[in-house]
Amino acid sequence: MIEDHKGDPRWPQNYTLEQVHAIQRKALLLDIAKKYTTFFRVENTGDAVKNIGLCPYEAGSVKQAFTVDVTKQLYHCFSCGAGGDVFSLVMDMEKVSFDEAMDILEKFSRKEKA
Ligand SMILES: [Zn+2]
């Protein structure tokens, strides 16, 4: 547990930082994001590979403003400003705490491996 964030549902409560990092390596942001939205194109800027699609934070939007940087494992929406990592995406989409997002990602990465 990260002491500074005890009781904060947006931070790990029952997981160690090592466990968080292990999941982060297995549960790739783009794979998870594809559960919630559609991607249309890939842009390679030389130092970053970005997948661009619809923003899952904006229901019904047709703007291709949502980008997933597969190098940094971060997302950003140029339309609404949403941004974060695989954990914040699952927390926001599933309306769950960090620990619940960990459980979801753990299950997901097990299924992917099988
Ligand atoms: Zn957006």
Describe the structure.
The chain is an alpha+beta fold and 114 residues long. The protein has one domain (3-109): Alpha-Beta Complex (DNA Primase, Chain A), CATH 3.90.580. Helix content is 38%, strand content 18%. It is built from four helices and five strands; from the N terminus they run ααβββββαα. The chain has helices spanning 17-26, 29-36, 86-94, 98-113, and strands spanning 39-44, 49-53, 66-69, 74-77, 83-84. It has a five-stranded antiparallel sheet, covered by helices on one side. Strand 1 and strand 2 (49-53) form a beta hairpin. The longest helix is centred in the last third of the chain and has 16 residues, at 98-113. The termini are far apart. 20% of the residues are buried. Zinc ion binds next to loops.
Helix and strand succession?
HHEEEEEHH
* Gyration radius over CA: 14 Å
Q: Quote the beta fraction.
A: 15-25%
Count the E strands.
5
Low-confidence stretches: none
> How are the strands of the biggest sheet laid out side by side?
1-2-3-4-5
**What overall form do the CA principal axes indicate?**
globular
The CATH superfamily bears the name Zinc finger, CHC2-typedomain
Supply the number of structural domains: 1
Q: Percentage of helical residues?
A: 25-40%
| Average pLDDT rating | 93
CATH class: Alpha Beta
Largest sheet: 5 strands, antiparallel
Q: What is the CA-CA span between the terminal residues? A: 29 Å
Would you tell me which CATH topology applies? DNA Primase, Chain A
Number of helices: 4
Q: What is the level-2 CATH architecture name? A: Alpha-Beta Complex
Instruction: Look at the helices and sheets and give the structural class.
Output: alpha+beta
Bound molecules: zinc ion
